[in-house]
Amino acid sequence: MRFSIQTASLRQLVLLSFFLALIPVAVLLWQSHKALSGVSQNAVAEAETSVASVRRAENMQNLVVDIERAVRQHAVVKTDALARVARTHLNSYQQLLRQVCDNVGQSQLCQQQQLQLGILLDNFTELSSTELEPLMQQFRQQQQQLTQQIWLLLEQNLQQQQRFVVESQQQLAWQTVALVLLTLLIVLWASGRITAPVRKLDKMIRAIGQQHQFPDEKLTGPRELAELGEQLRWLSSRLQQLEALRLILLRHASHELKTPLSSIREGCALLSEQLVGPLNKQQLEVVGLLNGSADRLSQLTEQLLDYNRLLQQAKPEPDWHSPQQLFTDCFNDHALSLQQRGQAVELSCQLSAIYTDITLFRRILDNLINNAQAYGSQDSPVWVKLYQQEHQLILDVANNGNPIPTSLREKLFEPFQRGTTPRFDSVQGSGLGLSIVADCARLLGGHADIVDVIYADVCIRVRLPLLEEKLG
């Protein structure tokens, strides 16, 4: 089956990788079998050779004894029968000597023994016992030397076999290491063919989620992952179109609402001041309701415009600022609404300067103060704390009131999500306050959540990084 790796499916790539990884394993098994067979054959051959050599050495030793007995007996009793027995033993010894000399390789010793054997064959019938004694003694000594050479040869063969086994083990070990490394490289190559497009898919998904520029590079790899990359590219284009339409709609709707809303508010003001004529009690009540609704609609419009500006801010612009001045300006802007409900701000600021984007930080503070004022208890303080904890800048805004259930805490930071607790300022919320806080904290490199503290019923904590390089 022929296919291109670039266009192969994920299943084909996995099967191909598995097959390629099995090749070195199969080679290793074959090499191991070959080495084991070689060692086994060598051991069997050496064992057979050793047994044959030992057997020949023992036979030669026995023949030497038989030759010496037969020759001595013939020297005493010179009969043809004893001569034939001695000659038979000498001929048998001569055959074994040739075989041993072919294996031992001691040419000088073998020549001396063959020479001594030839002398005995030719002259043992004519020599006396006294003349045979030195010949037989020399014959025995040479046989002993020959036996020692046979045992020495067996020991050398055993050592050679041991070296052969060690060399085979070392060769097999190096082959194992090489084939394991090759298998590892194949596995790494195969995993790279899969993980590389997966990392690109992760990058694409993160780009979509963080609204960054979608990568222009086309995804290459298994066919399924490449198709998924193209689907993500289409999804990114579609989301960008929808985001652009949403921003245009939000901007135009917010802007277009301001003009008629201003007219409604001016008309309600003229009616409530009775500049166009006197109004009875019921009419004044209706005008008051219209004026309240106009204020409510104006507040919602301002929040939508603020949220639109927040979404369009791509990167914060941090600088050094005085937190005391920030808190003073913010509390002055909210002083009237706080005084109406008898709420006092208790500030605890442990820092003399902070490095942050003043616009985003002020939006966080404004929305948290407004949230604490709206949901806090009557005549209860609002706690504001700014301090450093390890490598983070911590801002806590807390108030007394109805505690927030744990199951709703994360959901409240989503856009247009409102809790079940009613507001105490008779204004219906839009569900954007905490969402703006979470988005501003995210742009500053931090996050916001709701925590439990012992001094208040509700505490919203914003954690921001201290280092300048983390603010981007």
From TrEMBL:
Residues 252-468 form the Histidine kinase domain. Keywords: ATP-binding, Kinase, Membrane, Nucleotide-binding, Phosphoprotein, Transferase, Transmembrane, Transmembrane helix, Two-component regulatory system. It catalyses: ATP + protein L-histidine = ADP + protein N-phospho-L-histidine. Its EC number is 2.7.13.3. It is an enzyme of class 2 (transferase). One of its GO terms (biological process) is osmosensory signaling via phosphorelay pathway. It is found in: Membrane. Signal peptide: none annotated. This is histidine kinase. It comes from Rheinheimera pacifica.
